[in-house]
Design brief:
6 helices; alpha/beta; 178 residues; Rossmann fold; single chain
Amino acid sequence: MEEKGLLIVHTGDGKGKTTAALGLAMRAWGDGLRVLILQFIKGGWTYGELSTITALKEIHGRIDVRQCGLGFTKKGNRDEAEHREAAQKGLALAEKEIKGGDWDLIILDEINYAVKFGLISEEELLELVDKRPSALHLVCTGRDALPSLVERADLVTEMHLIKHPYQRGIKAQKGIEF
């Protein structure tokens, strides 16, 4: 079997981008791959994926999850410069880990948002993607993936919102969304 690292993009306005990436992380872990998940926007508060992240953090040795973000830039009291600084630190960490050779799969969760919000430039993202070793699988998640990233990708999945319970006034459900 030929070993070729894939560039995978999960994007779109529907739910499930991070969840799909986390499922891929579990599949990779189950097959003996070493997995790193860097979360670019999400910070230290409750999210739908938090229970999965907590479970993943308990899997020692071949999987690691690190939060690089401070939260969505439009919410909270943080200044945009703080968000930019956190994203740039996350970008530097991602480059170090991509070049380091310790991982078989790296997930850059919500990196597309970091670009959309101007915390990371298009050029910085594309340079990062181009630095990956040929055997490293790299996943980029978040809405509004750049056309240039989509063009470089080997696999692109667009999650499309058709219907959401929130539209009918149904609040987030434990184990499903929080």
